Amino acid sequence: MCEEYAKAHGLIYNVKKSEFLVFKAVGGKCPESVPAIKLNGVELKRVTKFKYLGHLVTDDLKDHEDIERERRALAVRCNMLVRRFARCSPSVKITLFKSYCQVFYTCSLWASFTQKTVNALRVQYNNGFRMLLGLPRFCSASGMFAEARTDDFYAILRKKAASLLRRIRASSNSILRTIAERYDSPITSHLARVLVGRNTD
């Protein structure tokens, strides 16, 4: 179907950049044999993870690797701010922190992870803020964010979840509307858990 569509619309697929991924079933089981998949006569490479629109998708549908990707990226951004803006005023540093370190791109999609994995990201976030403002290593995280009028880690997750849920409910797409209207759907129930502060283990 892809080949026919491309031919009819004058498109050419880049087979060197095309890959395929087989999702594991519940329990981690995977098909014993997967037939070769070809595009324009070229066999595609099978992968166990794939970055799609910045989000790392894995064959086990777990979010550990994407959370770790975000943690490493956050560490780089925090270190850059500490090095380049050491002489700026606290208000400027806080503004920069909000702009560069509260992104957490696609975090509202994280639904399957351990507390250990998300704690590592939370600690990175807290330590980055402490370093930027020159605060003691073991000062209260909730206190420093409250004093700086800055969202803590869980506040960001809740805001992102609320934003996604609001957009799903406002969508004209019939599939998204169905998901939003079913309170027993995995997506809706996960977002509800985030909003009330219940973490996924």
TrEMBL record:
This is Reverse transcriptase.
